[in-house]
Design brief:
InterPro entries: DUF4926 (IPR032568). The chain has 65 residues and is mainly β. It has no helices and five strands. The two termini are 14 Å apart.
């Protein structure tokens, strides 16, 4: 599955070390192709403050409908 810069995505897995849980919504802020395809995703709280910004593999994400 491919995503583009600024796509809104949903997290498919829990990432407890980052304070993130499956189902959270984030935005793609960078796209990496090397050494493998990955996406930097920013997750924010209700006030718009960044909770975490993490590089994730495509299979860890899904498009928000």
């Amino acid at each position: 599955m491919e995503f583009s810069l600024f796509d809104v995505v949903i997290l498919n897995v829990d990432l407890p070390d980052e304070g993130l849980v499956k189902g959270m919504t984030g935005a793609i802020i960078d796209v990496y192709s090397s050494p493998s395809m990955a996406y930097e995703v920013e997750f924010c709280d209700q006030q718009g403050r960044t909770i975490a910004s993490v590089a994730l593999a495509p299979e860890q994400l899904q498009h928000k409908s």
